[in-house]
Amino acid sequence: MIHKSTTEKQKKQLHDSKGDNEYIQLLHSGEEYFIRLKKIIRGAQKEIHLQTYIYENDETGNDIAACLKEAAQRNVKVYVLLDAYGSAALPDSFIQTLIQHGILIPLLFLKALR
User: Fold this and answer.
1) How many domains, the chain?
2) In this structure, is residue 98 part of a structural domain?
3) DSSP assignment string, 17-52
4) 90 neighbors 82 (Cβ within 8 angstroms)
5) pTM here?
6) Structural domain span for residue 78
7) Model confidence over 32-90: pLDDT tens digits?
8) 86 with 51: CB under 8 angstroms?
9) Is 100 domain-assigned?
10) Are 60 and 90 in contact (CB under 8 A)?
């Protein structure tokens, strides 16, 4: 939905966009989402900005963490913003491993988590 204050020129720019990576894909399940997320992380070349409410130390969380660490090793800047409430169960060792691999996690999150 386009806001009513959007000008005709802005509307045209939205519809005439020719960027290579500008599309929307509807995913039908969590499994599809995580497969797509791993593919995006593995294909990243410059930066990754991952923001999530719930991040758990489980098989899926470890798979995503492994992809993020691999990206950081490829010199991709990796930023992870986690919700302190939704990710409160993450152990310190999990977070420290991410940081040791060069993944940037805001200090605000780290203080709120503890």
Assistant:
1) 1
2) yes
3) ---TT-------SHHHHHHHHHHHHHH-SSEEEEEE
4) yes
5) 0.75
6) 47-114
7) 999 999 999 999 999 999 999 899 999 999 999 999 999 999 999 999 998 888 888 89
8) no
9) yes
10) no
